[in-house]
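Data availability (excerpt). All sequences and predicted token strings are deposited with the supplementary files. A representative entry, DNA mismatch repair protein MutL, is shown inline so that the format can be inspected without opening the archive.
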Amino acid sequence: MTVIRALPIELINQIAAGEVIDRPSSVVKELVENSLDAGARRIEVDIEQGGSRLIRVRDDGGGIGEEDLLLAVAAHATSKIASFDDLEHVASMGFRGEALASIASVSRFRLTSRLQGQERAHQLEVDGGKLQPVRPAQHPVGSSVEIRDLFYNVPARRKFMRAERTEFAHIDDLLKSLALARRGVEFRLSHNGKPVRLLRAADTLDQGLLRVAEVLGPEFPARSLRIDHAAAGMQLSGWVGLPTASRSMADSQYFYVNGRLVRDKIIAHAVRQAYADVLFHGRHPAFVLYLELDPAGVDVNVHPAKHEVRFREQRLVHDFLFRSLHEALAETRAGALPDTAG
Ligand code: ADP
Ligand code: MG
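Structure token line:
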């Protein structure tokens, strides 16, 4: 005889955590995206032992009120969407309302926050999914989330964590990719108490290029072309590397759709085609590109980690990308027709 049972909520959250929280960098991604959604201008990330001992993200965003602290760590509770219609137009990084509940179910979790306009801050601790009572605390407007002993109660996951250096390198890469998406936000990263990275807020394009150089290397700006194209309700901007900036690995490719880093077959194909006759076989272009389009034209609810998107008008997006990049690269193309671009 089979017995069907409803699962306890802690277990439901741990199962959900299995989908999106697979290593320390995925925790950092969720926490920093929350800080960005909260309108933070400064975000500080402190890591100890590659994140296995401590991940702390502090922000100066709008904060969370006392009454909302418990909801923040409840599964399927979010302040970002309220209806199916909102889901169709979602502009925030988060919307599933699952991250904090998932993370808190596989770690020792502490959230301290002060809501804008409030005198006092409050703190909530969760230990492997078990909630402790909310209590008053000291904190400026904004939030701090501290994750200790990630996966301490999930031995199988803990075993899969790599060397401290490897996990930290993943965190650093992730932070760089988020920092490229939000040039106007200051990011600080430290490891085991030592400052590792400081990315100052960039208001102008020139300052923005400094941040690009920090991520893609100091020689990239001089070996790249500025892109700025608009058509059919879409806008493409950023920098594409000249053939001299190409790499033997596809590790310097940043493509953002409405501020979200994505990997997508349609995009990859359009880029490859645009570069086809200017790059040698086995070389990969370097680029930082930002595609902006109506959120209704792109579905981000394809995968829990949201690395994938689905375009409503795939062909249109593909052709727009291809044409913009192909034109920009025209000068570097042997035998290109002069003065026909426009
Ligand atoms: P989601 O981001 O999908 O809404 P999360 O579990 O990541 O789900 O967060 C739940 C809620 O907690 C958010 O909707 C937001 O209201 C609140 N929250 C989380 N982190 C922060 C933060 N750093 N600042 C302000 N609010 C936050
Ligand atoms: Mg979130």
